[in-house]
Specification:
Helix content is 55%, strand content 13%. The chain is of the alpha/beta class. The protein is globular.
Length: 148
């Protein structure tokens, strides 16, 4: 299986919260894991925000989290923003009320899916993005829309 993770799913592998065990299981089952190159900045922002908002995470634990993320990042298939991707984003934006980075993730996933549709799964924890992905024919995890 090729597993595409948007940032809401990717962060759950490193920060224990609802859905984390599912993401870890999907990660283990996947033959390849993909995301957009913009997920790097999004994930770092999320980690640092969560660290500021959480008293219980030590500097050492946070350092371990960051090392793990950076190590894994090197092995991911990363879709870069290109003119082709931007054209897909233009096609999607008039149809779906998504934020900019969510459009990038959906367009990135569709780009990979078009090449290998038979064994592709899109993982995200954003209800609007998940619905847009389903409407475009993607298999989405988790199967049920997350609670808002």
């Amino acid at each position: 299986m090729i597993l595409y993770l948007d940032t809401s799913a990717l962060v759950k592998k490193y920060w224990s919260e609802e859905g984390s065990m599912d993401v870890i299981d999907w990660w283990r089952e996947a033959e390849e894991i993909a995301t957009s190159s913009v997920a790097y900045a999004e994930a770092l922002s999320a980690f640092y925000r969560k660290r500021r908002e959480t008293d219980g995470l030590s500097k050492k634990a946070f350092g371990t989290l960051m090392l793990s993320f950076k190590k894994d990042w090197k092995s991911l298939i990363r879709v870069h923003v290109t003119d082709t991707l931007n054209q897909t984003i233009e096609d999607l934006i008039g149809v779906y009320p998504l934020r900019g980075f969510d459009l990038i993730h959906l367009a990135s996933a569709l780009l990979i899916w078009e090449k290998t549709p038979e064994n592709f799964v899109f993982a995200c924890y954003d209800e609007r993005l998940a619905e847009a992905a389903r409407e475009n024919g993607l298999s989405v995890l988790p199967e049920h829309a997350p609670d808002p």
